[in-house]
Here is the input.
Amino acid sequence: MFDSRFSLESPTGALLNVHRAEAKGQDHGVLLVFHGLAEHAARYGRFAAEMAARGFHVYAHDHRGHGSTTAVDAPLRRFAKHSGPAKVLADCRAVLDAAHRSHHDLPVIVFGHSMGGHIALNFALRHGGSLAGVAVWNAAFAFGIKEKLGLAALKAERALKGSDVASDFFARATFGSWARTIEKRRTDADWLSHDEAAVAAYLADPLCGWTPTNSMAVDLMTMVRDASGEKAWSGLPPALPFHLVGGSEDPATRSGEEVASLAGGLRHAGSRDVTFLLQKGARHETLNEIEPMREPALRSFQTWAERVATGARSAHGHDIDA
Here is the structure.
């Protein structure tokens, strides 16, 4: 679980709700966690405790329009009235700066799940030089004809209904479509995980499972577009390490194929350190899966995070304890 939480004023005007777990024993680095759509940072408490036990200070904040973060222009289910993606990324930068103030000598790794993965890759495109590594789990970055048509449909929906109404089109094309892929499902959230308790907790949480506004849906699709394709990926620092995970039963990423495509695309664009794991049997929330699906992915990430943190400290001349 997290050790504490605090409020952080972002330059965007948002008051960010930030959870923190302190590294146990020798500290090796800082981990920033970016949560997914229609959930919140507190759901990552177990993961934070596991990483803290491995020497990482963990920070996880509620994005705009989510959880307990507040902003005048960002009620629940909306990033902002204008410039949503830019403000989301500026909030993430505020958390990074706060972490640097507390742990200025430690390397920083960013971890993003699903929507958080979209945010993490956009963040890396802007601030990759400040990071020791980037993890993108269960996030698809395809932006072809289907996605372009989807974005056009969202904009048409906005013209008809307004930007601050729940997007029926987005809900049908994503959550609704993914739910139908699970045969003999107990609930419409079974596409998240095989863990019945995790799914039940998600459904019982009033801060989870809602339909985003058209405004948020357009902003999310815009972030996918802006971080898709080799032209975008070629702007990443070539030596920046990546850790990518997909689930072989995740309908949100075409059974992990779109995460595999991202791995190949990053390598082709010049990234020299890309680790990819297709976790057999896992659905969308790999961190909330049953065993033996969760453990291999977690161990892979922990080993990778320790490697890149050690490499970053060595490259900057910091002493590294044996």
